[in-house]
Amino acid sequence: MKQNTWFFPALFSLTAAAVLAQDTTPAPSTNAAPVAAAPTIAAPPPATAPAAEPKPKRPARTVAIKSRTPLDPPATALVKGDSVNVRGQPSFNGEVLGHLKKGETVTVEEEITLSRPPKDEPANWSRILMPTNIPVWVDGQFIDADARTVKVRRVRLRGGPGENYSAIGILEKGTAVTELRHENGWLAIQAPTNAFAFVAAEFLDIQKPAVVAPPPSEVVNVPTPVAPTPAASEAPAVAPAPATPQPAPVAPAPTAQSEAEQEMAALRQAEAAQPAPVPATPTAEAAAATPAPAPTPEPVTPRIVTREGYVHKAYNIQAPADFELHESKTDRLIDYLQQPAALNFNIYIGTHISVTGPEMIDQRWPRTPVLQVQSVSLIP
Predict the structure, then answer these.
(1) Do 85 and 354 meet the contact criterion of CB atoms below 8 Å apart?
(2) I need a surface site. Which of 156, 198, 234, 322 has the fewest CB within 10 A?
(3) DSSP annotation string for 140-184
(4) What count of Cα atoms within 13 Å lies in the side-chain half-sphere of residue 349?
């Protein structure tokens, strides 16, 4: 009886919990209007990022140079390799400007030795004149489009269409250019005579210059001074020649004349027999009367100096030399430069150099000295 007392209340509690656990949400009415489904919105495609502009070529790293040896005059070299790279810097990191074939000839202006060459790279390089079949580049904004000449004071030549390429020369104002093609405002032009490049020295065979025999010394003949002819007042009177022609002049019979009178008579007979006058042999009195020549002043030995600056072309046709040396900072004219006969000095126009040689003053240009160039060194 006690067991039935607690059993029924427990059963009631379980039944109530089961009822409460059922879903009490009323079912939708069948008479209700149908609800329209929400429209499906397509997701927009992902935005495409704009293409990045190509980065310009990084400039070649600066190499440490141990020594420079200018060749005066420049030497001719033969290419030994099958396809030798011509670069804008004396290093494998320099951009390749063109190629040389085996057997081609180039002009070597300077030999360069690097102080710390990278591993597996040569230490010796040659600076050569740019071959004419390899173009160089110049910024088109500095070129007159109509006259095709440089319109600024000075513009640099580059190894490619951009300022990040190596500088391989300079053009002065007014220099004419030959355009080959253009790219992004830059012009590819034919290489001028002062453009340069670099080649590993191991691929070049420098030719020794031919030995030229010195010219024979000239012999100067100094004329013998001639005594003046005696004046007419000093000569004795001579009878006029007869009107009838004589077959041959007959010498007069010897008389008791002085030695001087005999010589004078013989001279007159020789003048009558020959159409051209014969100068008389100078006597001791005539030689004594001849004034002594003025002493020749000793030549002034010019001083040997070394000057530094930029080379310009002398545009004044009356200048004592074809080239000018201007100071690096103020661009002031320092010297007129007389180039050696065997050196093409046009390759140094616009470059920073150091020249050594005798310096003197030309009387026509007393304000600016003239320097006869004996040696040239490039200054980086």
Answers:
(1) no
(2) 234
(3) GGGB-TTT-BB-SSEEEEESSSSTTSPEEEEEETT-B--EEEEET
(4) 23
User: Within the chain, where are the H helices?
Assistant: 2-21, 259-273, 284-289
Instruction: Name the band, by pLDDT with cuts 50, 70 and 90, for residue 183.
Output: very high
Q: For residues 127 and 69, what is the distance between their CA atoms, to the nearest angstrom?
A: 10
Query: How is residue 317 annotated by DSSP?
Result: T
Cis amide bond preceding 73, omega within 30: yes
- Close Cβ partners of 106 (under 8 Å, ≥ 6 residues apart): 76, 77, 79, 100, 128, 129, 131, 199, 204
303-378 — its CATH code?
Answer: 2.40.50
Beta-bridge partners for 358: 304
d(CA 99, CA 133): 10
pLDDT value at 76 more than 80: yes
- The tokens describing 258, both together, are 């002085």
The yes-or-no verdict on residue 380 having pLDDT over 70 is yes
Which long-range contacts does 276-283 make (Cβ < 8 Å, 24+ apart)?
279/226, 279/227, 279/229, 280/227, 280/229, 281/227, 282/225, 282/226, 282/227, 283/227
- Strand (E) positions, the chain? 65-79, 83-87, 96-101, 105-114, 124-129, 136-139, 154-158, 167-172, 179-183, 186-189, 196-200, 204-206, 303-313, 323-326, 333-338, 352-362, 365-372, 375-378
Pick left, alpha or beta for residue 179 (phi over 0 → left; psi -120 to 50 → alpha; otherwise beta): beta
> Are 188 and 198 contacting, i.e. CB atoms less than 8 angstroms apart?
no
- Nearest partner of 312 among 158, 172, 157, 149, judged by Cα: 172
Arch. (CATH architecture) of 61-134+192-208: Roll (2.30)
Position 55 pLDDT exceeds 60: no
